[in-house]
């Protein structure tokens, strides 16, 4: 496990990965992973180029959100054995603001490209569902996915999320408004 002399207060294990808080020492891998164009293409907004300073701001932002909501909103995805950072996932803080009992909460995730295609994304959506429904008491989770992002749609469908609606011209990407698919799941 990465020892950055910081206690990891949150840890949950799913398949061969664990979700924890971010460590200062994650900064370089965050930059490496978020410099990948295919990750840029599929997320709403990321600074480009993505710098170490951006990574530091991101890690601090995760800590600030934890302070604000008194629970982890974003998680580092790590290899269970080595503790190495694999990616990030979490809940949409905009849905939580000023709302102690939100009707629906967005989820988001990215995984370093070299780790794609090993079932990690599917396990992460499973973990976010368990945390969101069972630990945080949310009644509905959703993800807004670009129409072209088949991998993300697949991992949601594998976790029994269903297509809810198409949001036309919903997100501006590279100066162009793009359609997204809202894919959601209601607590059983
Ligand atoms: C989406 C993402 C999280 C998936 O992670 P992952 O660990 O590769 O996911 P998994 O291995 O669990 O499953 C991916 C599935 O999508 C499939 N897939 C991926 N790209 C595909 C494509 N272009 N066409 C068809 N299927 C595709 C894989 O084959 C796999 O399906 P399978 O298990 O039936 O073979 C990862 O690709 C990523 O980080 N993308 C960039 C960021 C992003 O898109 N975030 C989500 C925004 S809504």
From TrEMBL:
InterPro entries: Acyl_CoA_acyltransferase, GNAT_dom, N-acetyltransferase. Residues 29-184 form the N-acetyltransferase domain. Coiled coil: none annotated. Keywords: Acyltransferase, Transferase. Pfam families: Acetyltransf_3. Gene3D superfamilies: 3.40.630.30. One of its GO terms (molecular function) is acyltransferase activity, transferring groups other than amino-acyl groups. Belongs to the acetyltransferase family. RimJ subfamily. This is Acyl-CoA N-acyltransferase.
